[in-house]
Each structure stands twice: as C-alpha cells, then as structure tokens.
Amino acid sequence: MSRSLVFRIQPRATQLGLEYLIRALEDIQRIVRDLDFAITRQATGRAWVVERLESSVPTVAVRPVSDGVTTLETFATGLQRLSEFARPEAPPPGFNEQVLEDIKATGRLFRGRLGVREIGVAADDDPVGVMRKDTVEKVDYLLRGGYRTLGTIEGMLERINWHNQRTFTIWDRVTGAAVNASFDPAHEEEILSLAKRRIAVTGSVRYFANGIPRSISAIEEIRPVAQRMEPPFADAGSIPDLTGGLDSVEFVKSRR
Predict the structure, then answer these.
(1) Using CB atoms within 10 A of its CB, is residue 63 exposed (0-12), middle (13-18) or buried (19+)?
(2) CA-CA distance, 56 to 44, in Å (whole number)?
C-alpha cells in the first residue's frame, strides 16, 4: 500500500534553472492539495510533509501526515489513464476542474532551455506515469470540451473562497463531484448563511463530455433543500439496480 507520491523532475538540458525548480514544487503542492480536497472533502486542507529529497535528479517524495491512501491511488490511477489516450473524452475519477487546471498550469515548466523535460511520478518506488508537455495538451483538450446549459446542482455547500474570484464548492448529490461555483457580491450573505448545508444552485452549468458537472456560473437562484433519504442498500450478496437499466453516463444525464 503506497505511502507517498514521488516526483522526479527531469531537466530538458544538463542543468535545471532554479526558477523552474521552484515553480515545479509550487505546482506539485497545488495539485496534491486540490486533489486531496476533491477526495477527502476536508475544507481546511490536510498537511503534507516531505518524505524524501534527492539532488542528482531533483526528486521530492511527499505524503499527508494522516492516512492518504485514497488520494495517492487516485492520483496514480488518474495519471495512468491520462497517458493511455491521445484524446481522453472524460477526466479520471477524482480529477475535478480545479485539479485539471492545476495540471494545465504545469505547462510553464516545459519551456525554455533550462526548463523541465518531464516529471516522472511514482507511488513509493513504483512508477505510475509522467507529466510532460503532451499531458498538459490532453488536459487542455478535456477543459475545452464538454457543454454548457442552464441547470441546477444540488449538494453540500463548502469551502467559500474570496481570493481573486468569489467561489464556493458544492458536492453534487448525483455524481459526488466537487463543482466549483462562482458568485457575485449580491449572493454573498446568502451563501454565508447556507455554509455546510444542502442547497440547490441554479445557473449556467458546465459539464464534461461524459455528463459530470464541473462548474456553475451566472447563478440565478440559491435555495436550501431538505435532507434526502439515502439510496437503498443492497441485501447481502446482491447489487441494487440504481440506474433502471441505463449505463452510468446516461443515468447521470437523465437526472439533470
């Protein structure tokens, strides 16, 4: 069972520029922080520590101070999935819009003579994939795809943010996805009063191509909703039919 993520920062030339090393560490921190939030839903953020630091090829191993197996496995599996397809149609599970934007931002590392050629990633000592220029291009393709329509997202309101842009996170009830919602000052007091509550937000919803919601803007209405009953549990040895015979993607789209 993996305990840490290992990032090996391979330079384009024989040397790596100091500014590129600093940027790489900042980007790594941003990716693991946002993915960890998307997996654990811990709004305050979980501390990560440096497990190992090597200098021959700049290498840093990081791990959360508490159990982070799910986040590590999600990142490892997601990076492998991104490397399998030239044009992925959907993001890997757990990779919400913010995590993809973080990976896209690493594009700044793969430029210039003293820049980074690739960042090899391992779970402990087991290689799981690389981040490089073509990874950024695949993520950009995912972010440019999908569709937008007027809709409503229902879920828990968490992590209100006023840095640069007013946003909050809503955990979509149907898919479990962390959806980024941007709001204007007119909704500020209302949003503060509804923090940590189940709400329904109506506005311009942007979806990935597979029907998973990614963000909502131009909010028209925010209202609290009553707690819904949990989905039915299966009897021992059985699996309940929760989708009515539809595949998962069509089921999600039918609930919109």
Answers:
(1) buried
(2) 35
Q: How far apart are CA 91 and CA 95, in angstroms?
A: 6
Q: What is the pLDDT of residue 235?
A: 44
Lowest pLDDT segment from 68-72, 99-103, 148-152, 235-239? 235-239
Rg (CA), the chain: 20
Residue 131's beta-bridge partner residues? Answer: 119
List all residues 6 or more positions away from 116 whose beta carbon is below 8 Å from its beta carbon. Answer: 9, 10, 11, 12, 16, 20, 24, 109, 110
Report the pLDDT value the prediction gives residue 255, as an integer from 0 to 100: 56
Measured in whole angstroms, the distance separating CA 125 from the mean position of its chain's CA atoms is 24
Whole-angstrom Cα distance, residue 161 to residue 173? Answer: 21
Q: Which of 98-102's residues contact partners 24+ apart within 8 Å by CB, and which partners?
A: 98/34, 98/38, 98/178, 98/180, 99/31, 99/34, 99/35, 99/38, 100/139, 100/142, 100/143, 101/143, 102/27, 102/30, 102/31, 102/34, 102/35
Mark residue 218 as left, alpha or beta (left: phi above 0; alpha: psi -120 to 50; beta: remaining). Answer: left
End-to-end CA distance of the chain: 38
The predicted model gives 193-197 an average pLDDT of 87
Report the 10 Å Cβ neighbour count for 81: 16
- For residue 57, count other CB atoms closer than 10 A to its CB: 11
Structure tokens at 189: 């007091």
Mean pLDDT of 50-54: 87
pLDDT of residue 87: 82
What pTM did the predictor assign? 0.76
pLDDT single digits (tens) 112-128: 888 999 999 998 888 88
